[in-house]
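With this grant's support, we have settled on a layout for protein records. One resulting record is reproduced below.
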Amino acid sequence: MTTATSNASSLFNPTSAPDYLPVDQLRCLQLQRLQRIVRRAYENVELYRTRMVERGVAPGDIQSLDDIAALPFTVKTDLRDTYPFGMFASPMNEIVRTHASSGTTGKPIVVAYTQDDINVWKEVMVRTFACCSLHSGDIVQNAYGYGLFTGGLGAHYGLETLGATVIPISGGNTARQIMVMKDFNVTAICSTPSYFIHLMEKANEMGIPLKDLPLRAGVFGAEPWTSAMREYVEREAGIKAYDIYGLSEIIGPGVASACCAQEGLHIFEDHFYPEIIDPETGEVLPDGEEGELVFTTLSKWAMPMLRYRTRDITTLMTEPCPCGRSIRRIARIGRRSDDMFIIRGVNVFPSQIEEALLRVEGAVPHYQIILTRDGGLDQVEVEVEVTAELFTDSVKGMEVLQKQFVRAIADIIGIRVAVRLVKPQSIPRSEGKAKRVIDKRNEG
């Protein structure tokens, strides 16, 4: 038995039992739930009924899991176009909670839950935290934002159901976060990875290095981050950093989670059926091929989602995981199809820039990608923050460091881009999701 399997067994939570279902039994359960949810969507959501009729598909046509390919896709604009309640399959007197996106790019995305949906959400969040080796003895600081954002309350109710002690601190007030972390003997934290890095820096400034605290685990999500970033966090904070995945349109956090083996993220696929498609053609790709991740909710009663296109690029992994779970995994999601920009004919993703920068010794994970347009051609400049020691070093030393960053980026994306080193604290810190790309291509 491997160490990972041994550790997982010693911390086994009964709620995680579906993670270990025999595959044949899991597929049978998925089909039953798929048939039920397709019928509910068809009978109660006009958009789905109209599209299924247009495609000549009826609920009774779903006789196997492969038949899911006959169903229509759902995209984010569908939720905006039906704002606020057009995607609901339940009457308002059965809706016990709604959440919504910020709506910064137009109408917000509104999602809904019945009490049964909330119970499922609690269940998958308990399974998430069990994956991350949390248990009832943990004291957990929940620094995800509370409110219409799904992260705060999603994590909160899962932690309470797990039996952990929850500190509902939400985001912001960073000095207070550090004080609470120290005084309350916090053993685990939930936040975005970028905000946790900000907490690490603030703790060092306050003379309270996180390595000196009882903190042992971080549960990080809500934004893409690379393996290089995870390694940086684990090294600098002395914790185990776990990647979790979710999206409001499906349920919120709780769709997939890394485990102690950290070899991809397990999908709780008894509730969320995954597909990988070619983002250009929509064709379903076999397991192991990279493409766009698509989810169908199998038990979301208030607001079923059929084949929701996430825009996240990843692969489905079927090989056994050392932790022993039978549910499939997705590779770490470091990029989204709608994050891509094209420079001199080359497709570039922000995660590639991040990975390159963190390859350079002494780098800190604070950067911005500035996109501009000159003479009709897109240009990119990467601003990289350096430590105070490096910034006050000799001009020659700075030139050497800049060339190292340029070379590291070129090694990954295949082209050279401009890199500018900036002084410490000059790149804005985020208390939620970090904004890595500043797009100025349509300015003036």
About this structure: The CA atoms of residues 95 and 301 lie 10 Å apart. Confidence is low (pLDDT under 50) at residues 1-9. The first helix runs from residue 3 to 10.
